[in-house]
């Protein structure tokens, strides 16, 4: 299974720390899966201009093609101005409307306050649903106080990360089996 970890923040470190923790746990549990970590902080991504995702070159083409080839995507996103970052919205704009069809998406959100725990529910999940993603219902919310000196210090957050990984792989595996059975029924 091809898995992409998308870290969409161009500033700060808390989202990166959180998503790297999930990646490490994931690779430990599923070493046979093909994994790619995309850190938008390290890439030069163009603004969407309506072209087909295959027409982009460089870092932009790399990111769009990796996401389109993935079976599982973990999105790590901070909360900026009570919203998702523009960098993440731009990634969605670079992709076709049904880009996430038959892909399972797990989410980890970071924020400085408990007041922002619903950003994933009211902003990110509707976009993912519109793009036809199979969204893991429970996501991981990480507050600034859960990370000290680039280390997660809250055991509950680590436990929720383990659950997110298990739930994401279970959902992706189940969907793949169902889709394979449906295709077999066609008999071509």
UniProtKB/TrEMBL annotation:
The keyword Transferase does not apply. One of its GO terms (molecular function) is oxidoreductase activity. It holds the Pfam family FMN_red. Gene3D superfamilies: 3.40.50.360. Keywords: Flavoprotein, FMN, Oxidoreductase. Residues 4-142 form the NADPH-dependent FMN reductase-like domain. It comes from the Bacteria. This is NAD(P)H-dependent oxidoreductase. The lineage of its organism: Bacteria, Bacillati, Bacillota, Bacilli, Lactobacillales.
């Amino acid at each position: 299974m091809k898995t992409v970890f998308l870290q969409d923040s161009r500033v700060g470190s808390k989202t990166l720390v959180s998503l790297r923790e999930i990646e490490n746990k994931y690779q430990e549990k599923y070493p046979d899966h093909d994994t790619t970590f995309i850190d938008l902080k390290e890439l030069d991504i163009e603004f969407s201009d309506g072209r087909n995702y295959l027409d982009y070159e460089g870092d932009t083409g790399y990111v769009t093609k990796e996401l389109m080839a993935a079976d599982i995507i973990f999105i790590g996103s901070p909360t900026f101005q009570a919203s998702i970052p523009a960098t993440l919205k731009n990634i969605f704009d670079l992709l076709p409307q049904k880009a996430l069809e038959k892909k399972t998406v797990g989410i980890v959100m970071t924020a400085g306050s408990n007041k922002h725990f619903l950003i994933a529910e009211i902003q990110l999940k509707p976009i993912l649903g519109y793009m036809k993603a199979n969204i893991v219902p429970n996501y991981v919310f990480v507050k600034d106080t859960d990370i000290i000196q680039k280390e997660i210090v809250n055991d509950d957050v680590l436990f929720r990360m383990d659950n997110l990984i298990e739930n994401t792989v279970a959902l992706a595996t189940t969907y793949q089996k169902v889709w394979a059975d449906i295709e077999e029924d066609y008999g071509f």
